[in-house]
What we know:
Elements: H1 24-32, E1 56-60, E2 63-67, H2 76-83, H3 86-96, H4 119-128, H5 134-146, E3 148-151, H6 157-169, E4 181-183, E5 196-197, H7 198-202, H8 206-215, E6 219-221, H9 228-234, H10 237-247, E7 252-259, E8 283-288, E9 299-301, H11 327-341, E10 347-349, E11 356-360, E12 365-367, E13 379-385
Antiparallel strand pairs: 1-2, 3-11, 4-5, 4-6, 6-7, 7-13, 8-11, 8-13, 9-10, 9-12
Amino acid sequence: MIVAPAFRPWSSLQEMPDRKPANKTFSRFALSAGGSSTVAGLPRREPSTLALPANRWRVLGDRFRLTSDQSRPMSISSLVRSVIPTPLRKRARELLAPRHIRHWPSKTAQVPWFDRPDALEQLENRRRTGGLSDKDYELLTRWVTDGYCVAEGIIPEDLINVMMRDLNDLWMNDQPFAGLDFCDLRIGNDAPKPKTSHAELLKLTPTERMQARIQSNWRTHSFQKYSAGANAIFNHPEMARLASSILYCRALPQGSINFEYGSKQDAHQDTAVFHVFPANHIVGAWIACEDISIDCGPLMFYPASHREPLFSKFNNYPQTNLRTANPEVARAYREHVNDLTRNYERRLFLGKKGDVFFWHGMMLHGGSEIKDPSLTRKSFVIHYMPKGANVEGRIVGPFNW
């Protein structure tokens, strides 16, 4: 179980119970990952078309091994993803989604502590009462003033290596992982596809797979469901502790993205992409999975831009954002963001392997230009929210993705 400090209750939500990880072995590994525990014994995980995951992991002494007799049935969501095509799933979500747009109130009491005028004073009080170390105080001060902070070297390199090994194995597996997709994969001379299933990828020859990997700006989501290393990072206790310290309530990881190359993504705000209520109760975490070069298209960010108000046309947030915006509003938002970037200094995050960049939901950020396309920019991105803050299921479509 991930243990976070005893935070004061979040006024807009019920008190959050302890989060129980789906897999006891992953939890034990994650809790000791920052110490001296070895990761050399982590096994390669074998895919299955019928189970997700196909096996449970069990700790035997200080080693991790597969136990084939511990298979468990596929979850309902994974079964649906493996059987029903994406367009039909999207249509079903639209049919089952709420029909009536609700009014989402914006109250001062729901503003996160770090966006309030007395945020720095609150930090002083927390340090004075013994609730903050000097290091955490420094990180949170940077968060309040600039909208980001960097925790150096908190993810062990060995743990990252396990995840990257599992990611590499995806391209040469004999059997596919059910429910695993690659986004923006370009096969041959075709245009990049929004999604390519792992099963589709493995139908290609090994040469075609490697060519697709090299020539595509691809990414994959929720890899923690398929990799012991990714799962341990996803549930890493120091990551959870820092995110919880930022939000001042228990923070839970909500999803993940693995990138191989720079994203070249335009500047944007995560609040405009996610449906979070109350607004800004979200923490992004960008983990460097290798030393980042200035020529690979590093993460770009604009310090202090988190103080800007939400785009005026998103006047019923979280119902109104980029995911529900019509083309005219989406275009106006992009113009708005472009104007904002002229008011702030652009910086690049040149992190070392294991460094973690945390950022505010309103801070402008994106992927900078790639000067050397042969260079990778391996990273693992996680977003944290309090329990119940992700209200995507209560939003009315149509949706842009």
